[in-house]
Design brief:
The chain is of the alpha+beta class and 146 residues long. The chain is 29% helix and 35% strand. It has a single domain (2-145), classed as Jelly Rolls. The chain has helices at residues 22-32, 57-70, 78-85, 96-105, and strands at 2-11, 17-20, 37-42, 48-53, 108-114, 117-118, 125-130, 136-145. It is built from four helices and eight strands.
Length: 146
């Protein structure tokens, strides 16, 4: 069994953003030399998710609308009040809504690798989903197999 790990680094530009990382994940799988196994795509950030879905612009707008409704920016989040009143270390962002969105969406995806390729359909795209942009981000890609 072989394990290969690499980071994908990028910068987001907006509050919520779907960043297509499929080609970069595929490149890491190819670079790993692993032909059969799986790849884990993981966000080490508490305000960024990883998902697999269809890369269609109107559908991405629907996703954003649903996420804004599920955890609205203008709602009251105790997390935001805690940062302001307790003097904890903060980057100055009131981002309780971003943490809640990740709770709903998740932080990783596992994809089978077969014959050295991701076992995704032509309709599936791997996205890093930013909920607290704009920021410098990274995603961990770990390929496991033979």
């Amino acid at each position: 069994m072989k394990i290969f790990r690499e980071r994908i680094e990028f910068e987001t530009k907006s509050q919520i953003e779907f960043v297509n990382i499929s080609d970069r994940v595929s490149g890491i799988v190819e670079k790993s030399g692993i032909r059969e196994g799986q790849v884990v795509v993981f966000s080490p950030h508490t305000t960024m998710s990883v998902i697999i879905n269809h890369n269609e612009p109107l559908l991405l707008q629907d996703f954003m609308r649903v996420l804004y409704k599920a955890a609205p920016i203008d709602d009251r989040y105790t997390h935001d009040l805690f940062e302001l009143t307790r003097g904890t270390k903060s980057d100055g962002r009131s981002n309780g809504h971003s943490h809640c969105k990740v709770l709903l969406v998740g932080s990783s995806e596992t994809i089978p690798v077969e014959r050295g390729h991701l076992l995704l359909t032509d309709k599936q795209t791997v996205f890093a989903v930013e909920f607290d942009g704009a920021r410098k981000r990274d995603i961990i890609v770990q390929v496991i197999g033979e």
